[in-house]
Amino acid sequence: MAYFIGIVIALAVSLSATFIGFDKDRAFYPTVLAVIASYYVLFAVMGGSIETVLLELAGMFVFMGVAALGFKRNLWFVVAALFVHGIFDVFHGHFISNPGMPIWWPMFCLSYDFAAAVYLAWLLYQSRIAVNS
After folding, report:
1. Helix/strand/coil for 132
2. Could you give the CA distance from residue 34 to residue 30 in angstroms, rounded to a whole number?
3. What does the domain layout of the chain look like in residue ranges?
């Protein structure tokens, strides 16, 4: 169910952004990536572990750096980072113990990340958003 809900929400957000016009601004999907990356930090805070917060912050800053690179240079970096974040979701629990993270989160986030990446790739391929700044 978490996979299905992740895909549905990603498509709802993405299609709404297109309909409203939010994604005409090149900053939209890099911002989405930055927010996605911040959730693990939120869960670490909820779990009460300073060590986990610091580890999750390191991961967040990596994805935020790629979001900035994608915004400044080429949005295909954001597509790639969304896919990589989905892979990160699969292996996250093997490397970082985050007691505040819901058990269903990795499946939800993986499907959200992949669906958002596919949608952004489609927008770029169709030239609906400028690839380069």
Report:
1. strand
2. 6
3. 2-125
